[in-house]
């Protein structure tokens, strides 16, 4: 199969884990490919994905080769594939817009240094570059709260004819206006807000569904998350969190028998702990009532390396986006969005979303 050529916006920890993973699985056999939901999708394997363009705004990354930039500060995720081949992709200066919170410019740990030596490119320059390098899929890895910047790159994807995967909680695929624009141009979009492979929200959803199926009345619940990467530092600015909280809360509420009042549910990032680096710790508490109206509660602590936890999901999303391009299918991809993302255009329970993605993968063009 020909390579799937992708472009990345935001060369942070998630981009680092993804890039490492593309090479990590290159020499693996299907039997030893731990951590992937699908080894093959429509004839495409993980090593068939090739990064051909990357954009960032940090001076420690812009102008560097991608193989070097993914390990540059403030990135702090686990290095599980240290011997990457040297990349010929140079990280380009992107548009700043709202892609950085003001407090990130001066924070001592994981500070973002905006590249001042390189002028911000015009939209036309980015669009032409995406076309020249042959990119087929554009991944949005900007920080939470990058509303304007995300829409800017979604517009670039539309103009350049690239499929768009929106990994962050800015509503593109789930916004009917944006979805219809992608559909009109026959360009697929997957989003919004990528789920981890086994993270806080997917675990919370499964437990919530278990309560429902076992006849336990869920009365109140919380999900508290701490971490020490730039994502958690960025989210100290609560003004950037409205879409994130909405995305995570709706993901859990959607599988409940009856949605809880806002006073009885709290789901969202909680605090930044620098020494945790890319380790994310989640605390979930669920209170309910069993047979005879007898009270019960459940408490769970989950610890995961945050960025690799989403990289395998992104690899599947990339291949599904390419399948849609091959099939001439445009607009928001319902099954992939429901299975891979927290805030898809339409919520389905996880069993149904799983069957939808399997059907999508198996479908053949007649």
Element layout with pairings:
Blueprint: E1 4-9, H1 13-24, E2 49-56, H2 66-69, E3 92-93, H3 123-132, E4 137-140, H4 147-160, E5 163-166, H5 176-184, E6 188-190, H6 200-213, E7 217-227, H7 230-234, H8 242-253, E8 265-272, E9 279-289, E10 295-305, H9 308-327, E11 331-332, H10 334-340, H11 350-362
Parallel strand pairs: 1-2, 1-4, 2-3, 4-5, 5-6, 6-11, 7-8
Antiparallel strand pairs: 7-9, 9-10
Helix pairs in contact: 1-9, 3-4, 6-8, 10-11
How much of the polypeptide forms β-strand, as a percent range?
15-25%
Order of helical and strand elements: EHEHEHEHEHEHEHHEEEHEHH
User: What is the overall number of helices?
Assistant: 11
**CA-atom Rg in angstroms:** 20 Å
For the biggest sheet, the summary is: 7 strands, parallel
Spatial arrangement of strands, main beta sheet:
3-2-1-4-5-6-11
**Ends: how far apart?**
19 Å
Find the structural class using helix and strand composition: alpha/beta
Which word captures the global form? globular
Unreliably modeled segments: none
The proportion of residues forming helix, as a percent range, comes to 25-40%
Let me know the number of strands: 11
Outline of this structure?
Helix content is 33%, strand content 19%.
Give an overview in words.
It is a single chain. With 366 residues, the chain is an alpha/beta fold. Helix content is 33%, strand content 19%. It is built from 11 helices and 11 strands. The chain has helices spanning 13-24, 66-69, 123-132, 147-160, 176-184, 200-213, 230-234, 242-253, 308-327, 334-340, 350-362; strands at 4-9, 49-56, 92-93, 137-140, 163-166, 188-190, 217-227, 265-272, 279-289, 295-305, 331-332. A 7-stranded parallel β-sheet has the order 3-2-1-4-5-6-11, sandwiched between helices. The longest helix is centred in the last third of the chain and has 20 residues, at 308-327. The chain starts with a strand and ends with a helix. The mean pLDDT is 94.
